[in-house]
Specification:
The protein is of the alpha/beta class and 378 residues long. The chain contains nine helices and 22 strands.
Length: 378
């Protein structure tokens, strides 16, 4: 089965030529190499816009070799495009990390790794009362353009830049306007903003919410909170962490039914221990314990997840979400958020062949990036 815009196709073949999808057709095709994926589901490659680390690597302390290992791990789990995600840190740490990601982006073309599409700053303009696992000493307010200019950006003309911020911090709405004028994707998160401020942020161009339900004010029958505001505004999209820890599965069902898959996307929010199992680790300068798939720092807060997008897809599938809707939330909607939907996010003629084939157990048995096989277990 192949997932294309608007439907699921059975008994079809995909022909890839020069790294792009030439066509889909019923029956067999003639090609230099034929891969039999009978019984598998072929999705567009997953796009994860919120990745702090995985496979023993943290994006803010990684060198080139470490980023390569991490991107290989992501590709084995069906991710074809991703955004390394920063937590609030010292400026010199930001600069060093951006230099390494720039180096990786120059290197990655044609390599068997998940491709970096840009950079995501989670903070530093966020609310200290909704800090989660972020380090408050690096939080900022927006007083002038110098605050933004001090944040390094990627050199590639094609690199996407995203920021999660709390619009209620001093200068927050003005910051949204500045970021939008520079072409950034702006998301609301780690926030206690009131409705008036949220409406102002939305009018300024912030129409997405980061890890919905987490690190924000919740829904109450006399105070809708950030959660209620996000649910009732149809032009606001949301991402969420489907690990069964950050959000209870029943609340994931609630979100799916109320916000609908057209406005939702999955993120991993994964950190360094993802893929390594339970144990004790050091992340962001502090001890992190992973036990039964749950992270906790020394303050007892959840400190990111240890899942991949593939794990999130499995969980949502177990809750009754169909393959087409999974594709929307794991691939199509993230592409729209980043403004790359003309190339990525769906399987269609002329698009780069970013694909992942999933077997009946929910495992990725084939990952293809721009027509090149980067992972194969079939």
């Amino acid at each position: 089965m192949v997932i294309v815009p608007g439907e699921k196709l059975k008994g079809v073949s995909l022909l890839i030529e020069a790294g792009k999808i030439a066509y889909t057709t019923l029956g067999e095709v003639k090609a230099d190499e034929v891969i039999d994926l009978a019984g598998k589901t072929v999705f567009p490659g997953f796009i994860d816009v919120h990745v702090h680390g995985a496979a023993g690597v943290d994006v803010m302390s990684a060198d080139l070799d470490a980023l390569v290992r991490m991107a290989e791990f992501l590709a084995r789990h069906g991710v074809t495009r991703w955004l390394p995600t920063f937590v609030p840190a010292a400026e010199e740490n930001y600069r060093r990390s951006v230099e390494t990601i720039d180096e990786f982006m120059r290197w990655q073309k044609g390599k068997p790794v998940a491709q970096v599409a840009g950079l995501h700053y989670e903070g530093p303009f966020v609310n200290e009362k909704q800090c989660g696992a972020l380090h408050e000493q690096y939080f900022r307010t927006f007083e002038n353009d110098g605050e933004l200019d001090s944040l390094p950006v990627l050199a590639s003309d094609n690199a996407k830049h995203m920021m999660t911020l709390a619009p209620e911090v001093p200068g927050g709405v003005e910051l949204i306007k500045k970021l939008k004028s520079k072409g950034w994707t702006v998301s609301i998160g780690h926030t206690r903003a009131d409705i008036e401020t949220l409406d102002a942020a939305r009018a300024a161009g912030a129409k997405h919410i980061t890890h919905f339900f987490n690190a924000m004010t919740g829904l109450h029958h006399r105070d809708q909170g950030v959660v209620g505001w996000g649910l009732i505004n149809d032009d606001v999209t949301c991402d969420f962490i489907a690990d069964g820890v950050h959000v209870h599965p029943d609340m994931l069902k609630f979100l799916y039914k109320t916000k609908t898959p057209q406005r939702l996307m999955m993120i991993s929010d994964s950190v360094l221990p993802a893929g390594l199992g339970d144990g004790d680790y050091e992340v962001w300068g502090e001890k992190i314990k992973v036990e039964n798939g749950r992270t906790s720092n020394q303050r007892g807060s959840i400190a990111g997840s240890v899942i991949t997008t593939l794990d999130a897809v499995r969980l949502m599938a177990s809750l009754g979400v169909n393959e087409y809707e999974l594709s929307q939330m794991a691939s199509g909607n993230p592409a729209v958020l980043l403004g790359i939907q003309q190339q990525f996010g769906w399987i269609r003629k002329g698009a780069p062949a970013d694909l992942v084939a999933i077997d009946e157990n929910g495992d990725a048995v084939l990952t293809v990036i721009e027509g090149e096989i980067v992972h194969r277990a079939v």
